[in-house]
Structure prediction request, 325 residues.
Amino acid sequence: MQALLSRCILALGALLTAAPALGQTYPSRPITVIVPYAPGGSVDAVARIVAMRMTEKIGQNVVIENVAGAGGVVGTQKASQAAPNGYTLLFSVESTMAIAKFVSPSIVQYDSQKDFQPITLIGTSPLVLVGKKSLAASTTDDLLKLMRANPGKLNYATSGIGTSLHVAGEMINIEGKVKMVHVPYRVGAQMVTDLMGDQIDLAMLPLVMALPNYRNGNIKAFGTTEPTRSPVAPDIPSLTEHPDLKGVNVTVWFGLFTPAKTDMAIVNRLHQAVAAALQEPDVRTKLSETGLRIVGNTPAEFTTFLAAEVEKFGTIVRAANIKAE
Prediction:
């Protein structure tokens, strides 16, 4: 009886100390970060900047694995099925984590809120509504008047159906009570080329993609899609500064996740490594050059943020009846 009691006490002690021990011994081998997009894109670039410094902070190699396909769905699905042990992470964005399930419900088999544990929101960046140089409008107010006088005659390009760029364009249609016609592209750079060649009227672009040609005077910039002006381009107004577009709020964001049910000691260890990496001057400089506003919030804060984003995008997609199928 005494021996049995001793074994029970030892087992209970092991349970009580397991979590701290796990956090202290993790990681003991390299960590893989799945990026659900092809190498060379903006998501991949930001992930590699962060992973490089995470390697130093966490004491193990943090390796990027690009798993592209279906607009980010394939890689995200793979990450959702990984063991929740902190050795397979996901670096993803709003399109796959807050929009895809509403636009392509038969394809998306994961639930971003149930199948993943948020670690850190790395940063955010606005989109910007730009126009061809010859467009007969120079301000947001001019543009709204032009669109209202010509319903359905002006078009706008994005990188595809169901992307955050598309959602932002439809939010402008809804909020501004106008009718721009959506023109989806497969290659982002082609949008800028066609815009400068007067092949399209308007485009919704990531700020970093729009800035060079805006600065050179090749295209017009009407406004960004975040409530406040971007520190990267404070001369470009926020669309919300116009009274008819106060509800426009679409942010491109980058975040790090781990599969759900990962021990919180591991989640916190990963967060600490990311937070430390984001304080490094070279990391901050490189991320700022991509147009990113660094956030670096806690797992709890990121969880709350994700829930709000899912609700917001779901409302917009349903109102605009955006479907990729």
